[in-house]
Specification:
Number of helices: 16
Number of strands: 3
Number of domains: 2
Strand content: under 5%
CATH topology of the largest domain: Citrate Synthase, domain 1
Shape: globular
Helix content: 40-55%
Strand order of the largest sheet: 1-2-3
CATH architecture of the largest domain: Orthogonal Bundle
CATH superfamily of the largest domain: Citrate Synthase, domain 1
Structural class: mainly alpha
Bound molecules: carboxymethyl coenzyme *A
Largest sheet: 3 strands, antiparallel
CATH class of the largest domain: Mainly Alpha
């Protein structure tokens, strides 16, 4: 085997073979199991899409009915999980709460039987069913309220909005949220999916797999960007401030949140759909002050950075949609996670078929053969930049 050159961020290096999704970054195309994302957004539901991703084909009516029934049945949380959540600080980030809760599921359902299709099916159902309940429960608990129990008569998206806002959502709002979940469900081997796959490759349990992926999704270069986009629009404040802001970012070489992508060199197809969904919501429920700022940002960034292939990614317009749906800013990434669980589990299941532990190599840049120097013989100096003791934190 010939050794490859070191590529920071593994750019362009295949780490797996997969038949789950396909991205054409030059043409701005995304397909799940060969089906165009636009068609899925138009015709499918999130749970049908999750089934497609995980089991490889669109379900028949009886298969879909059974899958939806199972999910409804498993939505509730054990009281011990709810009690554990009560101990979380209100100021904690909901992504941290979600990561802890996903990992805690492993305490309750720890029997690993990765060669048993029933175990796999139950784990898929539990994770898809319980993650939305966890996100909504933490939101209510941090406001000092009891969590709202799921409602069996509501579908997946409507039930989540109901548990979050404590009222049954408008049907258009619920449908738009369901489409958002479809759009975020899967995206080839991105950072969190890779994290899930590395964890899964040790043959640990699926709850640990999802917990590790949640932790990876949280970062601002990945799923956390949607939260930062809204904060950025709020800080910019007005359309007139957009171009000076963009110029400043370019001058200071700082990243503009919601723009750019390792694979897409044109506008992300999901951003195009999300923008249309935002417009539908504004038409029915009223305009959003930040939309005009977002439009001006897209224009200005495309003019200045389009030659580098920097255009809006999935995180740019999603926050404006979520805001209209009554979702608080720091829940944007947990909502992304609710959807992406489908993709993580699809990759987990696919990888179990032909698993090999991930164990890449490295290019060592350190010294070798150094002597061990006794403490008494080392210089009596203190490099404050390396390590500073502070008793206050
Ligand atoms: N704003 C300004 N310049 C940018 C941006 C941006 N958002 N993204 C990339 N560039 C420039 C970058 O400065 C570099 O320029 P140069 O070649 O002159 O040094 C060039 O484009 C390549 O950038 P890179 O950082 O090497 O690209 P990457 O593939 O490593 O990073 C990215 C991809 C998504 C992390 C990056 O575009 C970024 O940080 N974007 C902002 C954060 C964001 O919106 N993240 C969400 C990503 S999409 C959804 C998801 O993955 O969850």
């Amino acid at each position: 085997m010939t050794l490859c050159e070191y590529r920071p961020g593994l750019e362009g290096i295949p780490a797996t073979q997969s038949s789950i999704s396909f991205v054409d970054g030059q043409a701005g195309k995304l397909e799940y199991r060969g089906i165009n994302i636009e068609d899925l957004a138009h015709h499918s539901s999130f749970l049908e899409t999750a089934y497609l991703l995980i089991w490889g084909t669109l379900p028949s009516q009886p298969e879909l009915d059974a899958f939806e029934h199972q999910i409804r049945y498993h939505r509730r949380l054990k009281y011990r999980i709810r009690d554990m959540m009560k101990c979380f600080p209100e100021s904690g980030h909901p992504m941290d709460a979600l990561q802890a809760c996903a990992a805690a599921l492993g305490l309750f359902y720890s029997r690993r039987a990765l060669d048993n299709p029933v175990y796999i099916q139950k784990a898929v159902v539990r994770l898809l069913a319980k993650i939305p309940t966890m996100v909504a429960a933490f939101q209510l608990m941090r406001k000092g309220n009891d969590p709202v129990q799921p409602r069996d008569d509501l579908d997946y998206a409507a039930n989540f909005l109901y548990m979050l806002n404590e009222q049954q959502p408008d049907p258009l709002a619920a449908r738009i949220f369901d489409i958002c979940l479809i759009l975020h469900a899967e995206h080839t081997i991105n950072a969190s999916t890779f994290s899930a796959m590395v964890t899964a490759s040790t043959l640990t349990d699926p709850y640990a797999v999802v917990a590790s992926a949640v932790g990876t999704l949280a970062g601002p270069l990945h799923g956390g960007a949607n939260e930062e986009v809204l904060e950025m629009l709020q800080n910019i404040g007005s359309v007139e401030n957009v171009r000076p802001f963009v110029d400043r970012c370019i001058e200071q070489k700082s990243k503009i949140m919601g723009f750019g992508h390792r694979v897409y060199k044109v506008k992300d197809p999901r951003a195009t759909i999300l923008q249309k969904l935002a417009e539908q919501l504004f038409e029915k429920f009223g305009q959003d002050h930040y939309y005009a700022i977002a439009l001006e940002m897209e224009q200005a960034v495309s003019e200045k950075l389009g030659h580098k292939g920097i255009y809006p990614n999935v995180d740019f317009y999603s926050g404006l949609v979520y805001r209209k749906l009554g979702i608080p800013t720091d829940l944007f990434t947990p909502v992304f996670a609710i959807a992406r669980v489908a993709g993580w589990l699809a990759h987990w299941k696919e990888q179990l078929g032909e698993n090999r532990i991930f164990r890449p190599t490295q290019v060592y840049t350190g010294e070798r053969g150094q002597p061990y120097v006794n403490l008494s013989n080392r210089p009596h100096t203190w490099d404050q930049q390396k390590f500073q003791i502070s008793l206050s934190s």
